[in-house]
Amino acid sequence: MKALLSIKPEFVEKIISGEKLFEYRKVIFKRPEVTSIVIYSTMPEGKIVGEFTIGSIIKKSPEELWEETKSASGINKKFFDSYFANRDIAYAIEIIEFKKYEEPINPYQKERGFKAPQSFKYLSDNSRLCAV
Predict the structure, then answer these.
(1) Could you count the other beta carbons within 10 Å of the beta carbon of residue 73?
(2) Predicted local confidence at residue 32, as pLDDT
(3) Is the peptide bond before 44 cis (omega within 30 degrees of 0)?
(4) Which region holds residue 74: left if phi is over 0, alpha if psi is between -120 and 50, else beta?
(5) Looking at residue 132, what is its pLDDT?
(6) Per CATH, which fold does 2-123 belong to?
(7) Mind listing the pLDDT tens digit for each residue in 74-88?
(8) What is the percent of the chain with per-residue pLDDT over 90, rounded to a whole number?
(9) What's the rounded Cα separation, in Å, for the pair 95 and 11?
(10) Per-residue DSSP letters for 44-108?
(11) What CA–CA distance (Å, rounded) separates 15 from 37?
(12) Fewer beta carbons under 10 A from the terminal one: N or C of the chain?
């Protein structure tokens, strides 16, 4: 099973370049069968651009998580601290085997009434929102 994540274009570029090897989240999916993440690059791009296999999912206090992942975070400490302000638990999804789609997918054309997820959305493996 896959999950669709909304990610800002600036961070999508860092994932593509290999600079960002962790995707940070305040909440995480509950289904253990999720093994890959499909990336929706938010506006102004508004396209699904690729997917990656999940390595590990790290759950720690924000301070501990930063120490463990900062060298491959693709973000600065100020942004990290702001994102996890007033949180006791933080998550980092390890990005492995990123695959950029040859042709980005316009989800608004593929799925009637598509709405970008605030945090994530489960997708079936044969979803029209994934490349074959």
Answers:
(1) 21
(2) 87
(3) yes
(4) left
(5) 60
(6) 2.30.130
(7) 999 999 999 999 999
(8) 89
(9) 13
(10) TT-EEEEEEEEEEEEEE-HHHHHHHHGGG-SS-HHHHHHHTTT-S-EEEEEEEEEEEEEEEE-HH
(11) 12
(12) C
Q: Name the 3-class secondary structure at 21.
A: coil
3-state secondary structure of 40: strand
| CA Rg value for the chain | 14
The domains of the chain are located at 2-123
Q: What is the pTM of this model?
A: 0.93
* 125: pLDDT strictly greater than 80: no
Which amino acid is it at 46?
Answer: G
* Both structure tokens of 56: 């590990």
User: Which amino acid makes up residue 7?
Assistant: I
